[in-house]
Structure formats: C-alpha cells, structure tokens
Design a protein that fits this description.
single chain; 144 residues; alpha+beta; Aminopeptidase; 30% helix; 24% strand
C-alpha cells in the first residue's frame, strides 16, 4: 500500500532512513516531536510511504513550493528517496515517486525536481525510468 505518512509512522520511517544515509535514529525528544508535528501539519510537505505487512519499506518526500513565475504555478521537490535493502527491485520506490507526481499534478505544479548524490549508473537509470531527465539542467548545492 502506498500512502502519505501518518502520525504513528515516525519510528518506522526513522528506521527506514538508516537505509538512506542516516547512521542512527535520532533520540526521542521534544524537538524531534515538534519537528514531526510541524511536518505533519504542513499542507505542502508530503511524506509518501510504501507499506508491506504493516512495515514501512520505501519512502520519498515531496515538497510543494509556491512560485511567482510560470504563471504563478508551484513546483515540487523530491527528497529522501529510500527503500529498505531487503525490499529493493520490487517497484516500491517507483510507486512512491508516482504518488508524489500525482500530488504535484493535483497542486498544478509545472515541474518536479529531484537530485541524487549517487553516481551509480543503476540509480541514475532508475530515476530516468521514473520519468526524470539528467540532461536538462545542471544542479548545484551548498552544504550548510
């Protein structure tokens, strides 16, 4: 089942992020809970999850960004695309990305942007198969 994250999904989602780049799960704290509440209550912030047997095994984040160009149409950003190592190759991340695309369409976004730090050709081909182009733009980022 692919759906948006719910309040009770936090621990499972944080465990899944250890398959992305996190080394550990942040300790439960008032700050962590406040951030989770903020995310859940932001109508432009969507955490999409794939659930199997009650377990979150794949996810991505889709953020809708208001915009003053392109006839005032927003754009979407995709981040934190991850699938548990034991569940890869089954189309779950593709399903999450498709769900995100439908959110972006429903919000009248004119584009979706996604960046990956991976240099693995298989990962880059995965994103191309999901409809993303690696040749149209040049991405830059600055670590803060």
């Amino acid at each position: 089942m692919i759906r948006e994250a719910k309040e009770q999904d936090l621990e499972s989602l944080l465990q899944l992020y250890t398959h992305l780049h996190e080394k550990s799960v942040p300790e439960d704290s008032p700050q962590r809970q406040a951030l989770w509440d903020r995310i859940l209550n932001d109508p432009d912030y969507h955490i999409i999850v794939a659930e199997e047997d009650g377990r979150i095994v794949s996810s991505c984040v889709c953020v809708i960004v208001p915009n003053l160009t392109h006839a005032l149409r927003p754009y979407a950003l995709i981040e934190n695309v991850v699938t548990h190592a034991d569940f890869r190759g089954r189309g779950l991340a593709t399903g999450c990305l498709n769900f995100a695309r439908e959110i972006a369409r429903s919000q009248d976004c004119y584009k979706i942007m996604l960046m990956t730090g991976s240099k693995e050709e298989s990962t880059l081909r995965f994103y191309e198969r999901a409809g993303y182009s690696r040749g149209d733009k040049t991405a830059f980022h600055q670590w803060l």
